[in-house]
Design a protein that fits this description.
The chain is α+β, with helices and mostly antiparallel strands and 81 residues long. The protein has one domain (3-80). It has one helix and four strands; from the N terminus they run ββββα. β2 and β3 (34-45) form a beta hairpin. The longest helix is centred in the last third of the chain and has 19 residues, at 62-80. 6% of the residues are buried.
Amino acid sequence: MLGLGIMFNHPNPAQLSGRVVSVNLPGGRSCVNVRLEGEIKNAVVTMNRDVRVGIEFVQLSETEQAITAVLSVMSDVLASN
């Protein structure tokens, strides 16, 4: 729940694991923007030759944890539709 998966193109996925990244989550129609920092825990090449990275957010405040929980539920609902 306190992580994120992202797919993109990268020439050397082995270099990504352990890197710290910032992720900006725009609020869409709301006026809330969220910026979270996390560490890339894994990077794997997909069948389409993209790289899928798993990011674990670190040192989140209670508010940031609540936001990630809501986003997780929202993504589950969207994925089931």
